[in-house]
Amino acid sequence: GVELGKLLAQTGYITYDPGFVNTGSASSAITYIDGDAGILRYRGYPIEQLAQRSNFIEVSYLLIYGELPTPQQLEDFTSKINRHTLLHEDLKRFFDGFPRDAHPMPVLSSAVSALSTFYQDSLDPADRSNVELSTIRLLAKVPTIAAYAYKKSIGQPFLYPDNSLGLIENFLRMTFGLPAEPYEIDPAMAKALDLLFILHADHEQNCSTSTVRLVGSSEANLFASISAGIMALFGPLHGGANSAVLEMLEGIKADGGDVDKFVNRVKNKEAGVRLMGFGHRVYKNYDPRAKIIKETADEILSKIAGGDQLLDIAKRLEERALSDDYFVERKLYPNVDFYTGLIYRAMGFPTKYFTVLFALGRLPGWIAHWREMMQDPATKIGRPRQIYTGEKQRDYKPLSER
Ligand code: ACO
Fold first, then answer.
1. ipTM
2. From the CB of residue 115, how many other CB atoms can be counted at a distance below 10 Å?
């Protein structure tokens, strides 16, 4: 495939592939997906095993460095991240400039982009030690930035990180805690969030990861590339789907819980009406991540919130869709986001914030891809071609003759 690609490039032949449905943009050793069989593996390890037996920090290490860490490597990695969780006091002032009702995704992206102004050692992508430091800084600081984006939106003071806590626990405390009150971490909630982050940690050449790679291919630094990836994830067809699912379920609830009526609107292709959380470019089978989440959603929701009416609507909707020819013929199954919003809501996160949680989970995957691309001697600046459909050559007319 690689040789054929090179040969075609020499002939000037252009492949027309809108949406890159059939274009391999990179060779990668990070994540394996078999969409027909519903298989997902990180560095060869099945997602089911990682979900059950690993944790997010370990999975982050695995994705970025290629192997599961030894106990010593894990300890070093964790303590390095703990040392970098603080934000520069001047960066904290950025949050004052955003409107209080700002969507947290652009806030997150702007703050991550600004990291390259505070850490100018990141600007030389060829310097590996700086890449290493940028990696740790991102893993450590993005949860702090995300927590502050939330605090800003509700007008509460920012909490400094408490580095005696784990990454997830620290993030929960900075998000939901108050300075004068002790914050008791709910272990079920921390475990559930850790699981969701593992499931979101990488998914090969999706829209945001491809964006990180494309921006990085110009040798833009890690902060700049990931800031762009966050904005790609913002869209409702990608990371924004988890919020959209909840809005859809709320809409069905407000309409008396009539699942049939909603499914008919989808089938009639009413403008803007899709079954959110269903369908995937690669999976033409049940998304294995959705399967894991569905299995745990009941358990998690009963532990956290004592059940949820919307979960019942979601289950009925799924059952209805999976037995309908429209969805069967198009191989539309629930994707990772069908159930995640319900869990995030039960944890107390507002709907707007769900996509930020997706970004926190996806961060190690973005970093792993950027680093893999930079180390690959075959990497070139990303520069697709086009099929020109505009006017043939014509002559300029002065304004008075038009
Ligand atoms: N509801 C209803 N119909 C759908 C849906 C859906 N969710 N998804 C696809 N279809 C239909 C399309 O209308 C099309 O039918 P047609 O041929 O009759 O026109 C057919 O299925 C193929 O759809 P495409 O849009 O060509 O599929 P594509 O691979 O481009 O899109 C996508 C994939 C964007 C995920 C799509 O399925 C979708 O919009 N889903 C809802 C949003 C969503 O859940 N996004 C999360 C994706 S996963 C993630 O980012 C974590």
1. 0.94
2. 24
